[in-house]
Amino acid sequence: MFLLGTAVGFVFGARAGRARYEQIRAAAASVAESEAAKKTTEAAQQGLDSAVDALHRVGNRVTETSREIPSRLVHTTESLRQELNEANERNRQRQTETIVTAADLRDEALDDLSDNDDDAMLDEHGADDRNLNE
């Protein structure tokens, strides 16, 4: 902003002559050295310093986080692999239990069939024995 005012003053001063140029230059210098301009410049500098500090903090945090990413990925991958292995083992155990249960039920059913002498389908009045003798 100050530079723009200086440039405009320079152009008008050049047209108005050397005396007018010196007058404009002195006025611009007076404005630049005023207490309000100094406070504004200081406030702008403090704001810029704060922004630069914040940018450095963010940059440092990004750097730290990016360094942590590979180890986090490895840890997460290992955790998932372990959980998958445990789930597979539980699944195998359930399948084994299901097969054993099915085998036990089959054995019970076969025992029930062999123990049932009243079943007409097994031997109708000694027909099995007659067929074997023939």
UniProtKB/TrEMBL annotation:
Biased composition (Acidic residues): 109-121
Name of the protein this chain belongs to: Uncharacterized protein
Domain of life: Bacteria
Residue ranges with Basic and acidic residues bias: 84-95, 122-134
Region (Disordered): 84-134
